[in-house]
């Protein structure tokens, strides 16, 4: 198969980073949709492999866990019959509140098994002591106690309370066509394990990351046609997004990338380096496939 040049792959990744639709990118750079999907799949798989290996033993002091809804194929409520890899899915993610590094994520259902696997992965990546903040999902306390234990952690929940918007005199505001809009009134914070600092306990950082996902990854945009049609491609696209977020894009608050702020990288990555990382991953994958096939031939 004909490969795109290193420079053109970097341009394609730059367009993807800015949230451009796939079909628009194919027209801008005169590449086929199949080539575009291959770039997304290969780069996403390479980033997932790289982050899984490198983002470990992290000295995080405050981490936040949350989940975000999306669907693949169609809404669960519109499905005539259950189909594997279709319907409602959730993005589970964990962030270091200080360096803004998204060091763990998982795509799956919002069920006990997925939640337990996600929290266990988070536990395996961070040092102790650590403060953990989540929303009020009932399964979190059990998962965190089971995977983290009780030593070296402080865990609390934050529940945001929303109400109707009010005018300065205390009367309800009439918003016309936006009458369903509500504003946050307060946030209730509660200690669950240990003695977390309730002043700094929040899930606002991971929620802000999820807002960026909604805005920049078209597969998560509401009321659009850019949603994922295939679960494997959906996972690759999410890994690609977080790889660019962690290693390439400069965070405005930090003035550098989250990976550099966390000390896992010495300098910001260029998109050309992302292409080289992907090519190295594909080369190792091909070598492993060849070695497996050769070993199978040697068996009596």
List keywords for this structure.
single chain; 300 residues; alpha/beta; Nucleotidyltransferase, domain 5; six-stranded mixed β-sheet; 9 helices; 6 strands
Q: What can you see in these coordinates?
A:
The chain has one domain (6-270): Nucleotidyltransferase, domain 5 (2-Layer Sandwich). The protein is built from nine helices and six strands; from the N terminus they run αααβββαβαββαααα. The protein has helices at 6-17, 22-29, 33-54, 112-123, 140-148, 204-216, 231-247, 258-262, 271-298, and strands at residues 62-72, 87-96, 102-108, 130-134, 153-163, 183-193. Strands 3-2-1-4-5-6 form a six-stranded mixed β-sheet, sandwiched between helices. A hairpin with a 5-residue loop joins strand 2 and strand 3. The longest helix has 28 residues, at 271-298.
